[in-house]
Design a protein that fits this description.
Structural class: mainly beta
Oligomer: single chain
Largest sheet: 8 strands, antiparallel
Helix content: under 10%
Distance between the termini: 28 Å
Shape: globular
Number of helices: 0
Strand content: 35-45%
Length: about 110
Amino acid sequence: MAVGKNTLLVHSLIATSVVTQYRAVTGLGAIPAAGARILGVAATGGAIGERFPVDIEGTTIAESGAAVVVDAALEVDASGRFITKTTGVAVARALSAASGAGQQLEVLLIAN
């Protein structure tokens, strides 16, 4: 299934660590800890010191860290990928499914 996005708010940050497209980032421009809060999802990748766009509100494309079903509450893993919520902070809801890690899915970002 093709995924899309309808982003309502995009902000730019300067990367303080290497940032991978479609993975979660913090407000400091870094990959979050597993289960932590996020600012949004990197719309493009970036090297340390580079400016990159971050989708903050609305729907966006995200990378899965495991299999995900539609409508699942999501948290992030230690690589900034999206996984089904267990004990972490809910940061998004799955609008499409993924059968395993490394796939693109559409998510609705949740303010957290």
